[in-house]
Amino acid sequence: MNYTSTRSKDTSISASQAILKGIAPDGGLFVPESIPKMDFSLKAIADMSYQQLAYEVMKLYLTDFTEEELKGCIERAYDAKFDTEEIAPLVSADETYYLELFHGKTIAFKDMALSILPHLLTTAARKNHIDNEIVILTATSGDTGKAALAGFADVPGTRIIVFYPKNGVSPVQEKQMVTQKGDNTFVVGITGNFDDAQTGVKKMFGNAALAEDMNKAHFQFSSANSINIGRLVPQIVYYFYSYALLLRNEEIEEGEKINITVPTGNFGNILAAYYAMNMGLPVNKLICASNENKVLFDFFGTGAYDRNRDFILTSSPSMDILISSNLERLIYRIAGNDAEKNTAFMRSLTENGKYEITESMRKGLADFYGNYASEEETAATIKRIYDACGYVIDTHTAVAATVYDKYRKETKDTTKTVIASTASPFKFARSVMCAIDPALDSMQDFDLIDKLSETANVPVPAAIEEIRTAPVRHDTVCETADMEKTVRGILGI
């Protein structure tokens, strides 16, 4: 299985090389030359552990990794750092199923892939005889940053630099990042939003002069964002695992279709579900849930992608995104894997802030349903589900639950549905608790966390306890225009 760029038909490299590069030199994203079909039966996966299933799925994509290498990466990733043996439990609540993807070290779904990416990356470096130090350069809207920092902290042969919007993440998200330990970790706030951070990072990846200067100093960039195929492939696994758990619990019959609802910002998590469906996972509909930054909702409704709009700060900050990078992989596919056509769309997005796909391409979106949730609806859903069944969800998951409720009412579709629960409510305690009881807004952040623990009858996660009194280790803030200068300063080049 080789990988090509969404912007060049001439590229063809191995999985390990694609993971090392992170992003193609032409600015495109790496995609498999074809999506592999699953070579295991659905019945067989019902009895597999998460680790066993991860190997069965990932071996189809990472074909230049040996069995020993890949199993070693999986075993080191999905171990006791997760607080549940299942890794990703499936909880039945409110007449649907919540796939809890937040039981890792940083209590967000990014742990599911960022626990294994450092092992894939260092294995890939050995396979390709890389002597340079690998510099992980990443922009975050809140969760990727901490999960990547935790994954790469003190990993030999790597450094990690994370840019985040200074006033665009939750207090807990920020404290998780700025207290991060590790001599190879660097965190920088920018005076802009996530799209500004992401654009700045992409520019550095495409900067030939910077790459040359880094190479002379024995450095090279790679990415921990979901633009890295090494992030995307591990995310495919948990959609198969949710199906396996439904089979194991006799909630569905083998071959029965399910719906998958995903709260969506950068489009990576729902793209992984799309890949799973194309591999053979029985999926009826992929439900794409947006917050008030509803650029994806508008795209699915009209075929026009237009980021020329106000950027709204919401209670679901990991979805406060107007440039959904991973959508490019879907555009490339529905354009018939036409790199030239895709490049024209992406050029239009850069130059004009918008593009519109053709009518024939819109037919390729038939597997998707898009909708969005307002801030008021998101809060109301948190309270409704808590009042109905005592289950507390975070703001991002509440966006998904709201949109699924709209879908169900609109279509009358009763297909069993899995909702990707992407973060622990403890990460957004103020928004969650004030949705349940607005009178609590006067409480301090950590008092609210303790109140949430009492309300949900769930212990405060270790990831939160460890930052209560942790000292701030990273306090650098820069202008968006100074991102490259900041990186050069960190690396001493």
* CATH level 1 name of the domain at 90-108 and 230-462: Alpha Beta
DSSP strand count: 16
| CATH topology descriptor of the domain at 90-108 and 230-462 | Rossmann fold
Helicity, as a percent range: 40-55%
Radius of gyration: 21 Å
Mean pLDDT reading: 95
Instruction: Give the second-level CATH assignment, the architecture of the domain at 90-108 and 230-462.
Output: 3-Layer(aba) Sandwich
- What does the oligomeric state look like here? single chain
Determine the N-to-C terminus distance: 36 Å
- How many helices? The count is 22
Low-confidence stretches: none
What does the secondary structure layout of this molecule look like, with pairings?
Layout: E1 3-5, E2 8-13, H1 15-21, E3 30-32, H2 42-45, H3 50-58, H4 67-77, E4 90-93, E5 96-100, H5 110-114, H6 117-127, E6 133-139, H7 143-152, E7 158-165, H8 171-178, E8 185-190, H9 194-205, H10 208-216, E9 219-222, H11 229-248, E10 258-263, H12 268-279, E11 283-290, H13 295-302, E12 304-306, H14 327-334, H15 339-352, E13 354-356, H16 359-362, E14 368-372, H17 375-389, H18 395-411, E15 417-421, H19 429-436, H20 445-456, H21 462-465, E16 476-478, H22 483-491
Helix pairs in contact: 1-6, 3-4, 3-11, 4-6, 11-12, 17-18, 17-19, 19-20
